[in-house]
Amino acid sequence: DPVPPLQVIRPEPCGVCGSRIRFGKTAIKCCQCQLLLHTKCRGQCPSPCAPRPRHHAWPREGVLADFAPSTPPLVPILVVQCVTEVETRGLTETGLYRVPGTEQLVREWKRRLLRAGGALPALSSVTDIHVVCGGPKVREGEGTPFSLTLLPGTATDIPDDAASDTALRHVVSKLPPANRDTLAFLMLHLLRVSRSPDCKMDVLNLSRVFGPTLVGHSSANPTPLTIMEDTPRQCKVVARLLSLPPSFWRGFVGTEQENLVPT
């Protein structure tokens, strides 16, 4: 929702390409999300428009709710747009989420994201879809403002499958709303990835990739030994989550909002 072009009175980065908009140059700013961009970059403006976080700019870190929209489902636009781009271009890619993107490109992408103050650069310009996959795999301490550790480390190990499912449903339902909705959105996405014959990423492979990302540790300050011991349990929890029926997850994000970006 752009306003008429304006003149830049202090150099600021373009929210789409990341290059600096120099003093006196013409730029466009969105009325809703305050995204500032070159006039030439208007055609690459991210869609849908993402209202600004509750802070004037993204803090260096915060809880997931600080970056979620104000109305349900409470899924940060970063996660929504990354998932949408992956589903648009990546469901024919072998090893999706397992094959890493070029480390330098992933670092540059995260740097541009932070420099843009919370406005996601246009993902269509990122040629390598494995770089985009780095968004939903954000972990604590990786230079992004929030961690996607959505489940507490106490999400338990119960041998009986039925009892385990009941316990996990209870844990999920008691999560903070932004964590719960984001987890549901990701689970539905990962189920679609697991069903793609081209990706060759079954539930076991995906649980190995996302276990450390989505499930916390058994202690607040884990030692290297604890981290090593927690890894198999984290993977098992994600595998159990992916075994829950899609209808359970749709109950949080809504049947019509399984993909939050309109086609």
UniProtKB/TrEMBL annotation:
Keyword Transcription regulation tagged: no
GO CC terms of this entry: centralspindlin complex; cleavage furrow; midbody; nucleus; spindle midzone
Superkingdom, taxonomy of origin: Eukaryota
Domain Rho-GAP: 62-249
Keyword flag Metal-binding: yes
Gene Ontology BP terms: mitotic cytokinesis; mitotic spindle midzone assembly; Rho protein signal transduction
Domain spans labelled Phorbol-ester/DAG-type: 1-49
Entry keywords, A to Z: Metal-binding, Zinc
InterPro entries the UniProt entry points to: C1-like_sf, PKC_DAG/PE, Rho_GTPase_activation_prot, RhoGAP_dom
Protein name: RGAP1 protein
